[in-house]
Amino acid sequence: AGVKEDSFNVLDLAEYTKNRPWWRKVFAPSSGSSAEKYNVATQLVIGGVTGWCTGFIFQKVGKLAATAVGGGFFLLQIANHTGYIKVDWKLVERDVNKAKQQLKFHSSGNKVSPEVKSKVDEVIIFLKKNVILTGGFAGGFLLGMAS
Fold it and tell me: Tag placement on the chain: N or C end, fewer CB within 10 Å?
């Protein structure tokens, strides 16, 4: 009985994915963008549904955060008014002024690093290639925020 040897091709995934954009890893090796994969209606539906879900969650989390911050501030004001805590307003003013100076200093030298610029350019290229999907997402996001 002859033993037939199977030959296997070894694919080094680390080398294969090193220079590939993330959206090509997600969709397919041959697809340049999702616009080539789906028709206009499907892209609008996908973008709209994901946008609506994101907007709805963003709205709920935003309300919760605003309630927590406002409630905390309200409790601090009551504690200050009743004498449980004392606020050193001169210290608060000094720290706020120091923070303003630091913000002015950092915003005056607004040089963007090349890594950030390349990532921003990559995102802009992706958005331009997927205008319909992006438009559906934006519309769905606004609807999710409104509901």
Answer: N
